[in-house]
Specification:
By secondary structure, the protein is an alpha+beta fold. It contains 21 helices and 13 strands.
């Protein structure tokens, strides 16, 4: 899951106003190698109602600093170990990813080009492109342009006049499916339309590109996955391709593509959004990580919660690998950027085979240097800053992804899966679980001598600094909410101590360990019980930024420290 383990930088970033990246240049370069790749823009399906544009959207005053929320970072990697066929495949996969980008625009806002073309201010146009619409994803989805109201929580997955309570009572399973849009028919009744019908033209092109990439694949496992994923795009049956993706072990290139995460659906959390990552495996770092997946069954058995909340057995085929990301598209590229991936999300696949955890090392390093370290210099007590390290940040992030496989996927009282029982809160509480159980795993493995680098205080202090970083993602982000709940919990337990005279925070190591255990138990119990009301109450009471934290975040913002990164990406940035 996007989950979306993180860090921050020692310098102020000068704001560079740059125009939207032109895809024509990339397409032209791609065609030098393969002139079969046609323009992949396509008209939106008429059944889905998109957001309505104002006649002449104009920037609000004071938006010159908007782009300062993002530090520019170029996605590249060492490709010297790839064959000519593998390098050619990257062009094809990036073209397929661009289609996922188009589809996410349609799901989250509407057609991209008319909207962006209507914005004269170049920097505002770029900021709109980063956010996939006129709502600031790092500021609770508040509109940053005149003429737009609040973003509909259901994005374009449901009619805007949907009665939430009535839908919950009357909706069919098909209407709740991950892969359908809910629309009104000619009689104004609700009906579900499968994604592969709504986006048939675009998905046929994407499937053709994946099959083209499969023909270039030298790794048989990767070839099989690409062929099955191409088929899945055309019928919305993804399990076979998920299982094939789990079986891959020796591929040097990877692609995550399709409708995957449900964060964009903030109304129910039912609908998956299109996204893509194109990745190059870091063979050296992947070798270092391989041993940790074997500890999952032991760690599951030792979770600090009653036995009935840990009866499920994590799949033993789980693996850990490090990658350089060379292209993000769609949901993964909107607003805050993921630095690690834990997939598949299908609970049946997780129970059968586990998950794969992909650590996006180059993006992780960028966030550590450009964001986390500068924040730490402002908010962490000087004597504890030495404990903030990239190794600890990498480990905390990695074990966050591993921890998604712990606990239970199904409620213990016949309320169905945790995801369906907790509805719109499911994503945020799952991210919170992964954060806290990731740190729990670090504690356990450190005591076992399996984590050889650094002391426990490194992981605790880096973890605290990482919360300051992620809280800034805003209330519309599952990661942002999860971090806010955890910050308030640790503060109440005395694990985080604030000095109002200096404005600095410090970690209390002893109370930190106790808080990790008690918060782990709280979250696992809420999930296992499918306690929707209990989770809703917790979010309402503790999902707020208090004045102390608000002042700290304002201090960070006043220093010009960026909140996240924006990518320069595409084939023109890759050294072939």
């Amino acid at each position: 899951m996007k989950i979306k383990y993180k860090t921050l930088l020692l310098m102020l970033i000068s704001i560079v106003l740059f125009s939207c990246q032109q895809q024509d240049a990339e397409t032209a370069k791609s065609n030098e190698i393969n002139n079969k790749h046609a323009d992949q823009s396509a008209p939106a399906d008429k059944e889905v109602a998109y957001q309505e544009d104002p006649v002449k959207p104009e920037p609000k005053k004071d938006h010159a600093k908007l782009l300062g929320k993002y530090a520019k970072f170029r996605l590249t990697s060492d490709l010297t170990h790839l064959s000519d066929a593998q390098k050619k495949m990257l062009y094809v996969l990036i073209d397929a990813a661009k289609i996922m980008d188009e589809l996410f625009w349609l799901q989250s806002y509407g057609p991209k080009e008319p909207f962006l073309a209507s914005i004269e201010n170049q920097s505002l146009r770029k900021f709109s492109d980063i956010n996939y619409g006129p709502w600031d994803r790092l500021d609770g989805d508040k509109p940053f342009m005149e003429g737009y109201g609040e973003k509909f929580l259901g994005a374009n997955f449901y009619p805007k006049d949907l009665d939430k309570a009535a839908f919950e009572k009357e909706a069919t399973e098909t209407m709740k499916s991950l892969y359908t849009h809910v629309v009104r028919d000619e009689n104004d009744a609700l009906k579900a339309v499968p994604y592969h019908e709504v986006y048939a033209e675009q998905l046929q092109k994407a499937a053709a590109l994946l099959n083209e990439a499969a023909a270039l694949a030298e790794d048989e496992g990767f070839k099989k996955y690409l062929e099955l994923r191409a088929k899945a795009l055309l019928d919305d049956e993804f399990k076979a391709s998920d299982l094939a993706w789990m079986d891959m072990k020796t591929n040097k290139i990877d692609v995550v593509i399709g409708p995957i995460e449900t964060y964009e659906d903030q109304l129910f959390g039912y609908k998956a959004a299109y996204e893509a990552y194109v990745l190059i495996k870091d063979l050296v770092w992947s070798e270092k990580l391989a041993k940790f997946a074997a500890f999952l069954p032991q760690l599951q058995a030792e979770l600090p919660v009653a036995d009935e909340y840990k009866t499920e057995t994590p799949g033993t085929d789980s693996d850990l690998n490090a990658y350089d990301a060379i292209y993000y598209a769609g949901h993964s590229n909107a607003g805050s950027k993921t630095i690690a991936i834990n997939l598949p999300n299908d609970e049946s696949v997780q129970l059968e085979k586990g998950t794969r955890r992909l650590q996006l090392k180059n993006v992780m390093q960028a966030k550590f240097e450009k964001i986390l370290m500068p924040i730490a210099d402002e908010l962490v007590v000087p004597e504890q800053r030495k404990h903030i390290t990239f190794n600890a940040f990498f480990a905390n992030t990695m074990f966050h992804e591993v921890a998604h496989g712990l606990g239970v996927k199904n409620t213990i009282n016949d309320k169905g899966t945790v995801r369906t029982a907790l509805k719109e809160y499911a994503s945020a509480i799952e991210e919170g679980k992964a954060d806290i159980l990731g740190l729990y795993m670090v504690e356990k493995l450190h005591k076992m001598g399996e984590l050889e680098e650094g002391e426990m205080m490194d992981y605790y202090t880096t973890f605290m600094a990482g919360i300051f970083r992620s809280v800034r993602f805003g209330s519309s982000s599952a990661h942002g909410v999860a971090n806010l709940l955890r910050f308030n919990y640790f503060s109440e337990q005395g694990a985080f101590n604030f000095n109002p005279e200096t404005g600095h925070y410090a970690v209390n190591a002893e109370k930190m360990s106790a808080a990790v255990a008690s918060l782990s138990e709280k979250i696992l119990t809420l999930q296992g019980n499918g306690d929707y009301e209990g989770v809703a109450l917790w979010f309402k009471e503790k999902g707020q930024i208090n004045q102390e934290l608000a002042d700290a975040l304002a201090r960070i913002n006043s220093k010009g420290i960026p909140v996240d990164v924006d990518f320069e990406q595409g084939v023109k940035y890759l050294a072939f």
